[in-house]
Design brief:
The complex is a heterodimer of chains A (191) and B (651). By secondary structure, chain A is of the alpha/beta class. Chain A is built from six helices and ten strands; from the N terminus they run ααββαβββαβββαβαβ. In chain A, the strands form two sheets. An eight-stranded mixed β-sheet of chain A has the order 3-4-2-5-6-7-8-10. Chain A has a two-stranded antiparallel sheet with strand order 1-9. In chain A, a hairpin with a 2-residue loop joins β7 (154-159) and β8. The longest helix of chain A is centred in the first third of the chain and has 36 residues, at 2-37. Chain B has ten helices and 33 strands. Chain B has a 22-stranded antiparallel barrel. A five-stranded mixed β-sheet of chain B has the order 1-6-7-4-5. A three-stranded antiparallel β-sheet of chain B has the order 11-32-31, with no helix packed on it. Classes of the chains: A alpha/beta (191), B mainly beta (651).
């Protein structure tokens, strides 16, 4: 008796989730269109930087299950890019890995990804996310002020109206990520 | 389409045809518009083509958002970008200024120009033009001379490749910018050393520009410390007199310099730069040389609070060997600026500065300044508050500048500005401001056999300016702006007949003037391969003499300006890595001032450039002033039609 109820409860939950997903799809398309148009130039540039990171950083082969497994770019927390990031990576590949965007609402949804943009300002939440990712081959990117000083790898910031990068090289190295000198020479390196 | 325009025009196209051309243009373009919306310059496809360095050079916030620009929003500002310069035929700084639709730029000989905003291009002479109501800053260094209040344009050269942008504000910038910003401010801003990494080498040769060579190398010591060094040299041929004989004003200039940028962390930036130059002009066998160094420190307290300190030294020397006149000017300057918010509705900007100018002349028989050596000191302070009256929509900016100079003592330059932005696409602004031009040595110290100033007493020239403007961005890649102004000038320089000669003439402050006009400009990214920018300016004025002694022609001595002028620059990427760029310019008739400057007839001229990009190389062929064999712009000399070939390497 008890099990049946629980089972039905789960079923109901699944239906609810589907309905919610459908609703959010419709809502998303409505909300997203204007949102996409208002993706600021700043975030457009950052989105293209995320794509460039896949070209200028080398991931170890062990980060992929197979030679043609997807390269996953995750976005957790606030997503400032809208559709722009999807348009940026559409049809693109790294070696043989097609680029795929995944969005995680919060930590509970977080899955294995090769790059993670953290749209968070709360240092405690950021620390938890970084702790979860520890020892995985995930490049972590954020706008958060002390990101590169508190366990993160790449931080975006704006200086004189232009996008700049801070890179914590030792943390990236610990995750076996090999960053090209082309990227390093334009970034501020933090050890 | 461009062919059509040229075909119709038989070499010298008529301005009257342009409206038709514009109509046609709109028709063709409207079909392209939708795709332009989708695939504009910031589409993922376009941005992905850029290198990491180029991506880092994109300005990510609009001008109005960055705190240091707040003051300029409520003004008639035009920006010439590095790309606008690169995609034109200009080879030198004054030519680049002709790309600003709100400036009156008239070339008077091979090495000098009359450049002003809202009129008052004064009489052209062999070595300088008496345009004295503009403040010109190169990376914060003022380059107008206290000798006559204007700019020796031949000495102002920069490596155009490393110019980030040129901001041109028409209208008084007196509150913030200091003395001499009566009719406008030109701000030439060079790139950070970080943005000019690697090699640039360019060489050109042609008919008017005889030869040009420029090279720059940018490197870095570590990831926070960047530098660049550059050098350039050019030889420019002579213009001709109206009867087409050579006018012997060929010249050449060699210049070098450096810039270092050090960014140790998030809150501090340091920059240090310098230049040296030397050259010679055949006009009066003039020898020119100079050096300058400038250091700047900026500290950021937060997103909208910062402090900057700037110090510079500038020495410039010219010797008119033919007439035995020489001038050496040494300038020492220190400026402090502090910007901070009070609560959420007030943005305060205040600053203070001190400048010492040592001006030494060696007098000739015909040009004499007394005393020959003069030390001029200029103190200034300013404060401005930008108050948000309605959230994100209505701003009131109140400010004033106080300055003290050796000739006219204390001067007050207040302004009130109101900005309304009902939506991000629309800005309406209005301003009332007062500005002064402090006396120059030419006004007060000149003691020639023909003209002097009684007891050296010359007051500052004053203006009260009323302005109103509207800026609109109807769709993302198209913007227009319009500004109208009404200026009332008092105590303008006059040439009076001396009732007790000698000398026969006197400088005095006995003229008044009213001027009014309209400035329209637009910028449109029509398709991903075609961009247009340009504008139209209307200008009119009326002088009144305050004394019967004022010599007739005194008004033209101060202001020889066109009523109408227009500019259209077309920047086009063609298939096969080709670029086709055309700039057209129309300037209305200029009145003549007997024995100084003949009447100049209205002219339309255009410059064209065809370039081919091959990897790191760029090869271009350019033609300047193609509409006629030659034309006069200012004074008695004529500018020839000319061509040059250029090769550029960037790595």
């Amino acid at each position: 008796m008890k099990t049946t109820t629980r089972h039905r409860g789960l079923q109901n939950f699944a239906v609810l989730r589907k309905a919610a997903a459908c609703c959010s799809c419709i809502l998303f398309s409505v909300v997203c269109l204007p949102a996409q148009r208002t993706t600021s130039r700043e975030n457009q540039v950052k989105a293209v930087f995320l794509f460039n990171f896949t070209q200028f950083i080398e991931w170890p082969a062990s980060a992929f299950n197979s030679p043609d497994a997807p390269f996953i770019i995750g976005v957790i927390g606030n997503d400032p890019f809208g559709n722009y990031l999807d348009e940026t990576v559409a049809g693109e590949k790294v070696m043989n890995h097609p680029l795929v965007i995944q969005r995680y609402k919060d930590l509970g949804e977080l899955q294995t990804c090769h790059m993670l943009f953290i749209g968070q300002e709360d240092p405690q939440k950021i620390k938890t996310i970084l702790d979860v990712l520890n020892r995985r081959h995930t490049l972590t990117v954020s706008d958060y002020k002390n990101f590169a000083y508190s366990g993160g790898m790449i931080r975006f910031y704006t200086q004189e109206n232009k996008t700049r990068l801070q890179i914590n090289l030792s943390i990236a190295k610990a995750a076996e990520l090999n960053i090209s000198s082309k990227l390093l020479r334009v970034a501020e390196i933090i050890d | 389409m461009l062919k059509l325009l040229i075909m119709r025009t038989h070499g010298r196209f008529e301005w009257i045809r342009l409206p038709e051309f514009c109509l046609l243009l709109i028709l063709v373009v409207s079909t392209e518009m939708l795709s332009a919306q989708k695939n504009g310059p910031f589409s993922p496809r376009e941005l992905k083509k850029l290198s990491v360095e180029e991506l880092m050079n994109i300005e990510v916030t609009s001008v109005s958002k960055s705190p240091e620009k707040l003051t300029e929003v409520a003004s008639a500002i035009q920006v010439i970008t590095n790309e606008d310069i690169r995609r034109s035929t200009v080879t030198r700084l004054p030519e680049a200024l002709s790309l600003a639709p709100n400036l009156q730029v008239a070339q008077s000989n091979s090495h000098d120009w009359g450049i002003t905003a809202r009129g008052f291009n004064g009489a052209p002479f062999a070595n300088n033009t008496l345009a004295d109501k503009l403040l010109v800053l190169i990376d914060g260094r003022s380059v107008y001379t206290p000798l006559f209040g204007g700019v020796f344009w031949d000495a102002q050269n920069v490596l155009l490749e490393d110019v980030d942008r040129i901001e041109v504000v028409s209208g008084p910038g007196g509150t913030l910018w200091g003395a001499n910003a009566v009719n406008g401010v030109i701000n030439i801003i060079s790139k950070n050393a970080r943005e000019t990494q690697g090699w640039y080498a360019s060489a050109a040769g042609g008919s008017f520009l005889r030869d040009y060579a420029g090279v720059r190398y940018g490197g870095h010591v570590d990831t926070n410390f960047f530098f660049r060094v550059y050098g350039q040299r050019f030889d420019q041929n002579s213009t001709t007199w109206i009867d087409s004989t050579e006018s012997h004003d060929a010249w050449h200039m060699t210049q070098g310099g450096f810039r270092m940028d050090y960014v140790p962390g998030n809150s501090n930036t340091f920059s240090f730069q310098g230049d040296f130059y030397g050259g010679m002009a055949d006009t009066g066998n003039t020898i020119i040389n100079g050096q300058d160094v400038l250091g700047k420190w900026t500290h950021r307290f937060s997103e909208n609070a910062n402090l900057s300190l700037q110090v510079y030294f500038d020495r410039t020397w010219r010797d008119l060997t033919a007439s035995d006149f020489s001038e050496q000017l040494s300038t020492y300057d220190i400026d402090l600026q502090h910007h901070f918010p009070i609560g959420s509705n007030n943005q305060v900007l205040w600053g203070a500065g001190y400048r010492m100018m040592n001006d030494e002349v060696e007098n000739s028989i015909s040009l004499t300044f007394t005393p020959a050596e003069r030390r001029l000191q200029l103190f200034n302070g300013f404060v401005q508050d930008r108050i948000m009256l309605v959230d994100q929509e209505l701003y009131l900016t109140l400010g004033t500048k106080i300055l003290h100079n050796d000739y006219s003592g204390f001067e007050l330059q207040p302004s009130v500005r109101l900005t309304c932005t009902p939506s991000p696409e629309h800005t309406i602004w209005a301003a009332v401001s007062r500005a002064v031009r402090t006396p120059a040595r030419f006004d007060a110290d000149e003691t020639t056999p023909f003209i002097t100033t009684r007891n050296g007493e010359f007051d500052s020239e004053k203006v009260v300016a009323y302005e109103i403007g509207y800026r609109i961005r109807p769709v993302q890649y198209i913007s227009f702006s319009i500004a109208a102004f009404y200026n009332e000038y008092d105590d303008l320089r006059s040439i009076n007949l001396n009732d007790a000669p000698p000398p026969a003439l006197l400088f005095a402050n006995d003229q008044q003037a009213k001027s009014w006009g309209l400035e329209f400009s637009g910028n449109a990214v029509l398709t991903k391969w075609w961009r247009l920018r340009g504008g139209y300016t209307f200008l009119d004025k009326r002088f009144t003499a305050k004394s019967p002694a004022v010599f007739s022609g005194s008004d033209l001595f101060e202001a020889i300006d066109p009523h109408h002028q227009a500019l259209l620059q077309s920047i086009m990427d063609l298939p096969g890595n080709l670029q086709l760029d055309i700039t057209g310019r129309y300037v209305d008739m200029l009145p003549g001032l007997p024995s100084v400057s003949p009447q100049i007839s209205a002219y339309t001229t255009f410059n064209a450039r065809l370039a081919w990009i091959f990897r790191e190389f760029e090869f271009s062929a350019a033609g300047q002033n193609l509409a006629g064999k030659r034309h006069g712009e200012f004074g008695s000399r004529e500018i020839p039609r000319s061509f040059y070939l250029k090769g550029t390497f960037r790595f």
